[in-house]
Design goal:
The chain is α/β, with parallel strands linked by helices. The chain has two domains: about 190 residues; about 140 residues, 2-Layer Sandwich (GMP Synthetase, Chain A, domain 3), CATH 3.30.300. Helices cover about 30% and strands about 35% of the residues. The strands form three sheets. Strands 1, 2, 3, 4, 5 and 6 form a six-stranded mixed β-sheet that branches. A four-stranded mixed β-sheet has the order 10-11-12-13. It has a three-stranded antiparallel β-sheet with strand order 7-8-9. The protein is globular, with a radius of gyration of 26 Å. It starts with a helix and ends in a 6-residue tail after the last strand. The mean pLDDT is about 85. It is a lipid-anchor. It is found in: Membrane. One of its GO terms (cellular component) is membrane. InterPro entries: GerAC_N (IPR057336), Spore_GerAC-like (IPR008844), Spore_GerAC-like_C (IPR046953), Spore_GerAC_C_sf (IPR038501). It comes from Caldicellulosiruptor kronotskyensis (strain DSM 18902 / VKM B-2412 / 2002).
Length: about 375
Amino acid sequence: MKKFVFYLTLILLTLAFLTGCWNRKELNDILIVQAVGIDKNQSGQFKLTYQVLKPKVLKTPTNIPSSSQQKGVWCFSSTGKSIFDAIRNATLSSDKKLFFSHNKIIVISEKVAHQGIENVLDIFLRYHEFRPDAYLIVTSDDIEKFLNSNVPIESIPAKELENVIKNYFANSKTLPISIYEFQKMSNTKSKTAPVPFVTIKSPLKQSSQSQMFYVEKMAVFSNYKLVGYLTHEELRGLLWAAGKIKRGIYPVKLGKDIFSLELIQSGSNINVKRKLGKAFFTLQITTETNLGEKYSNSYISSSLVEKIKKEFSKSIRNDVQKVLKKSFELNCDILHLGDIYYSSYKKPLNFDKNSVSVSIVVKPFIRRFGMMKE
């Protein structure tokens, strides 16, 4: 009897590890979504547009369609009273269920962004199939046209769009924001988050068959609503303050001469002191650069280097002051100064130009001057 119980228990334990892929999804039964666009139609219902892979792309090892004229994706739309309702209504026109675990891009229309996206993003953070590291995009273009663009490089437009917004490390004029990062920034005391504003344009004036994605500016969200935009220079000021400058080229003008500095790395530190009901912030920025190019006949002397560094410091301060000015205009704390103030004094910051003062100290370094002697 004991042996019987022993073997029965052993068999039952073995069966527990033989469940297999009980929740598997066959490729022939699903549509793999690469990007999803969110808009509203005239009746106020949500309209979702999906960019899904074609099965033939999955069969090609290099992920390149058999014909250069053929895209690796196709797009279609569905509508519903809610985001989830619209997603399930997609099965009314497709015999396969949408699969979002590989979704990389979420495109929000400018109209929906102005109305607020707190509830719009709920399903993307709540439902287990969605990825919290998918990137957020705002556009003023028609969502269907945007996702169905004929891009010249990648066979999958969502992949090319992802690469474009991730190129911030090369230009320091934009910043990719995932759903998780957006939610985290929106839940701070400042409740402010930037999102890339992307449009499509032709590579050449004469070309109309293909389009390229272009990060035109950064959309500023305050309390989950689109309230304004940052130019490339204003966004760079935000990156200086946040210490997120990676790489990029910074032209410095001295009279008629231009010196292009290649940004190597940077760091920042912000301190705050309260005095007579006013918050005094001190922003310290340290940056290292190389001289990458010069439009000048001047010899690279120590005095000229000091002049370049002085003008470079002035330009950095101007970038930060521009984004600070835009913060006061939009009445939203883009630099997240309120979070720093709260961590020091456990009180909310009264964010206005009469109650906040920011002094900027820049320490620039030019390390190398390239392969030229002069």
